[in-house]
Amino acid sequence: MDDQSHATDFTGRAVLVTGGTRGLGAAIARAFLASGADVMVCGRGTPAAPPSAGGREAAFRAADLRDPAEAAGLVAATAERFGRLDVLVNNAGGSPDADAAAVSPRFVEKVVALNLLAPFYTAQAANLVMREQPDGGAVINIGSVSAHHPQPGTAAYSAAKAGLLGLTRALALEWAPRVRVNHITAGLIRTENATALYGDDDGAAVAGIVPMGRLADPDEVARACLWLACGLSSYVNGADLAVHGGGEIPARHAVNSHLDSNTPPPLSSP
Question: Which of 10, 54, 90, 173 could bridge across to 35 with cysteines, CB 3.0–4.6 Å?
């Protein structure tokens, strides 16, 4: 992959995308498929149809990555099926909102296990395969703006995602130069469940707080994954790549804009 004109050609390469059956994960899987890679996706439930692109389809294996044995089994199955493992995208994660004052210990444990421990277990197993390959490999951890700027109701999730960023930097130190480990800070993304996350307007209202004026398309995050996995980023290691449209416009700026225009700020819902 030294020829930069073919840097994003992943023909003959193997990619594992966790949580790759829907939403952002499926978009990432399709991007790698379209670039020629062999792709394995996982989830706890079998999808109606795995991601596909260009007449090619991802392989699927059921796994609960919070279990270290299942995480190791998934990596082993991927390497056995394709004969190698070049890229791991730790995409599986998420959490419903919960009041930190009343949330149960079991809830916190599950959130931290899914968003921090599962990526750790999967990356450990992937590293064992990648470090033995002549070209090594790349691990990409999908993080969240919550790691940098927590929102109410996301205490456990924000803490776990902050831990994922710290884990990325630690593994980048330990596993280079054979295995590069990088992080993407993702912002608001327009997926099939955007209405459930952002309201019935499909995210139009919350898009106003993003400098780019819209939610991200999943393919825009997927293309960032392609770049971090290919030779164009060969010296990028331990990085936190922000793919969030500029973050969020500070509240004081929004208030000052309303004052400058002599228009009162919108009232919150009762």
Answer: 10
Measured between alpha carbons, how far is 225 from 110 in angstroms, rounded to an integer?
Answer: 26
Cα-Cα-Cα-Cα torsion 254, 246, 161, 250, nearest 10 degrees, comes to -20
Single-letter residue type at 269:
S
pLDDT given at position 227: 98
Residue 198 in tokens: 């952002």
Task: List the one residue out of 95, 82, 67 whose CA is nearest residue 32.
Answer: 82
Torsion sign (Cα): 202, 206, 210, 213: positive
- Separation CA 62–CA 45 (nearest Å): 6
Residue 244 DSSP symbol:
S
What are the 10-residue block averages of pLDDT along the chain, 270 residues in total? 69 97 96 98 92 96 98 98 98 95 97 98 98 98 94 96 98 98 90 61 68 83 97 97 84 56 45
Count of CB atoms situated within 10 Å of the CB of 60: 19
Query: How far from 18 is each of 39, 74, 152, 162, 234, CA to CA, in Å?
Result: 11, 10, 27, 19, 23
β-bridge mates for residue 81, sequence order:
none
Distance CA 119, CA 184 (A): 14
What are the backbone angles phi and psi of residue 239, rounded to the nearest 5°?
-90, 155
Q: What are phi and psi of 60, to 5 degrees?
A: -130, 140
